[in-house]
Amino acid sequence: MFNTLTERLSSTFKNLRGKGRLTQADIDATAREIRRALLDADVAVPAVREFIAHVKERALGEEVSEALNPGQQVVKIVQNELEEILGGETRNIQLAKNPPTVIMLVGLQGAGKTTLAGKLSKHLKQQGHTPLLVAADLQRPNAVKQLEVNGERAGVPVFAPHPGVSSEHEDPTGDPVEVARAGLEEAKTRQHDIVIIDTAGRLGVDQELMQQASDIRAATNPDEVLFVIDAMIGQDAVATAQAFNEGVGFTGVVLSKMDGDARGGAALSVKYITGKPIMFASTGEGLDDFEVFHPDRMASRILD
Ligand code: GDP
């Protein structure tokens, strides 16, 4: 846990140990290093500002443990604060009282939604559920096929809008809202207890995308809307999260591409901006590269 930031701070404080309580001067001296560490981790500027104000308030007057110096003590407070913010509301998928539970995935194109759909369906299947994947991303030419491949690998059926798919419901048109609606009906008929709806993304946020996602949400009344965001997105995390939060609304966040070298600042930014819990992390292209989100690991990674 004592990492790069601690080393930096420790050199600021040399070997002072157990010198009573943290003072304003101690905290001010470390705030700059903390700010730099958070910005290096790509935490958005407003989130950094708010976070530091919080830590300053919390640290003032805190006792410095015998084993630590003031710099290490502040890092410990920062680590705890990060864990609390990232994990305050950590929770699992909320299941509907009357199945099927509907989970809708939203996010920019390339964020990792289709990949996540396969991973999440496998994860839920392993927990004894009987998910159905619904291919309502009709924007990207390959998305339906990609979901079918993922579904096959996960051993989970896929409801897709083209002939040849065995369905008791009529083959829906090319309208994603109709596909989502028909997929939900299919799940009810075939008694799947969970439906995962993959939706289209655009390269940038746009009105049409938001409207379509909103329409799908209205048509299927999901229990969870998961916002999938690429951890590498950096400072753009704020604008993107805000746009989806206002345009569609979501209940939880999935951080994808955590196997890359992003330090995960997007996690903190999104949590600060939207207050929504981070639920899962995607850590690779394979179906098993998927984790329930660990706030402590993320806090260490952000500070590293
Ligand atoms: P979508 O447009 O949101 O459905 O995004 P995709 O699921 O198609 O993912 C876009 C690209 O990112 C694909 O090449 C995926 O294989 C890749 N990808 C998705 N999730 C991850 C991840 O966690 N790690 C890595 N390294 N690649 C990922």
Query: Which word captures the global form?
Result: elongated
Mean pLDDT: 87
Cα(first) to Cα(last) distance is 8 Å
Give the number of DSSP strands.
8
> Which band does the percent of strand residues land in?
5-15%
Q: If helices are DSSP runs of H or I spanning 4 or more residues, what is the number of helices? A: 11
Compute the CA-based radius of gyration.
22 Å
- Name the poorly predicted regions: none
Ligand catalogue = guanosine-5'-diphosphate
Sheet with most strands: strand arrangement: 3-2-4-1-5-6-7-8
Structural class: alpha/beta
Helix content: 40-55%
Biggest sheet features: 8 strands, mixed
Task: Return the string of H and E elements.
Answer: HHHHEHEHEHEHEHEHEEH
Structure report:
The longest helix has 18 residues, at 70-87. It contains eleven helices and eight strands. Strands 3-2-4-1-5-6-7-8 form an eight-stranded mixed beta sheet, sandwiched between helices. It is of the alpha/beta class. It has helices spanning 4-13, 24-40, 45-59, 70-87, 113-126, 143-154, 176-189, 207-220, 237-247, 265-274, 295-303, and strands at residues 101-106, 131-136, 158-159, 194-199, 224-230, 252-256, 278-282, 290-292. The model has no long low-confidence stretch (mean pLDDT 87). Guanosine-5'-diphosphate (GDP) is lined by residues 107, 109-115, 201, 256-257, 259, 282-285, 289. Guanosine-5'-diphosphate (GDP) binds at residues 107, 109-115, 201, 256-257, 259, 282-285, 289.
